[in-house]
Amino acid sequence: MSDVSANPLLSPSPLPYGLPDYATIEPEHYLPAFEIAFAEQLAEVDAITRQRSMPTVENTLDALERSGALLDRVARTFYTVSSADATPEIQEVDETLAPLMSAHQDAIQLDAALYGRVRTLHEQLDDLPLTPEQRYLVQRTFREMTHAGAALDDEAKARLTELNQRLSSLTTTFERNLLADTNELAVIFADEAELAGLGEGELSAARHAAADRGVQGYAITLPLFTGHPYLATLTDRATRERIMTASRSRAARGGVNDNSAVLLEIVRLRAERAELLGYPSHAAYVTADETAGSPDAVHGMLRRLAAPAARNAEAEREELQHMADAEPEPFTVGAHDWAYLTEKVRQARYDLDSAALRPWFEAERVLKDGVFRAATALYGITFAERGDLSAYHPGARVFEVSNEDGSPVGLYVLDLYTRDSKRGGAWMNSIVSQSALRGTLPIVVNNLNVAAPGTGMPTLLTLDEVTTLFHEFGHALHGLFATVTYPRFAGTNVFRDFVEFPSQVNEMWILWPDVLAEYARHVETGEPLPADVVERLRGSEVFNQGFATSEYLAASWLDQAWHSLSPAQAAAVEDVAAFEAAALADIGLDSPAVPTRYSSTYFAHVFSGGYSAGYYSYIWSEVLDADTVEWFRENGGLTRTNGERFRRRLLGVGGSKDPLEAYRDFRGRDADIRPLLERRGLTA
Fold first, then answer.
1. 3-class DSSP state for residue 608?
2. Which of 14, 15, 36, 496 could disulfide-link to 614, CB 3.0 to 4.6 Å?
3. How far apart are the C-alpha atoms of 188 and 339, rounded to whole Å?
4. How many distinct structural domains can be found in the chain?
5. pTM to 2 decimals?
């Protein structure tokens, strides 16, 4: 009992905004706190369903939204750590917790008595005096519970619960295997000559990574996606091939970290669950509750874009082959050569050297004079670093965000650097979500995986990493600005195929003149990025879009192919590589030189993240994004008036109204696909 009473997770944090006091939390605190939180919420839901009075929004949905406050606090505290600092002790908790969390969620979502009260409210919807947010709350709660299986009979619910628990365990296993194999496959080089083309900062990071592993030489760690930023500058072809081979073999080499059997079981169980819920496939189940509406709509768009993207990529490959033929020792262009040769073509055509731009993208300046400054210009918000507040890891920094009038917005946490305990990729999550009902303000986190330089060396970003920081900060703004009553609608709790829209819009400010002039300054001289270089950057924006679009569409199609299978079709698949090859050939995106951005065994977005049957969301949201960028340009760009409109009519509503309705309210009409086609060079 004394251990429970001393558990810091069971009491509200004394820190500002409810930031968890991570310094006092140990791994052994989590599971006991979850057990108590599960029981507390079940008791709260039981109190709702035992009422004899007729259901109202106040006694049913308000009460449901208030329930689980302890669980929400404990879960957000834990899952922030399990993704960004997954020590072996945390991984053990995660594996134990996965089926327990799934069972708890099902116990509420499938509760027949609770569903009955919600259904009654839904039937009376037009007769109730509700605010727009309350009305949408009734609609969404009924829809989500129905979609989750609340209308099934008891036998079907029991099987559904089994499937959900098993799937939660499998997705956790997939992520654990991928993290372990990615760490094991860091490519070790003994001779610096093998890394010719890397700058001192990159070499410093590689030495640092090798030292952390207790080995001599240089360690090149792998990002989540198939390629690697260093492939653009490494001159040694064998080195490039070693890195690409390691990347593409992740979790597919046999042994304990192989994800092949894991993902096949995930696919089969998802297909079975979809059938149980009345859908022909998992993709049909997922898209039924997204803005797309159906797999046919998704497949139609992907096929429409794939053919011109593949043609553009083939034209790009032919140009690269001419470059390769002119090398002292000619070679056939392979996937590991693409980025390197592309940089040569870029230099020849636009006189641009991406690696040479890095001294103008020093991380601290990009953050404060780029990302933060653009947000201040648009929304009036300001940022003050809180060195007195510690997050979950020493590398994570905390900033307090305030409105123009000094009123508080929330906290922003930035965790920039890669480490072996952090999963790959980049993401945003909330430690605390905003809710007027609960009286909470948001704490949002951005995680990236930038290689840390040696002590005293500046962190110089690639343009892709600058883009990632602006992108993830767009998610953070969505989480900070959404001002809603109910936790269900907080922050980025919107449809999956809409959630990427605000983050993609925020990328537009990267090359915006007033923003770029402030942050793109040479790390040593302070000189701005030369105007002629800026113009060449803008002129090259469509360059290599055949490759970029093709690798993304290939991954999106692969996701759809796996999740469009019926249970019988899923059961018949035994060879992951063969299925992947057939799927990519089907849509014409099977060029050996243009691999899919994620192969199946390391496709964390869909097999351990929240994007199953939803990876298409990026291009789907980009239709809205490109159309919005055009609106900003037509209306004067980086102004407080424009920022206020975007904040109030779109970011600020969170998930409290239909997202396409919110878009129409902001834009004045539905989105036009033309700006997207022009951006990606697909109009021809």
1. coil
2. 496
3. 21
4. 4
5. 0.94
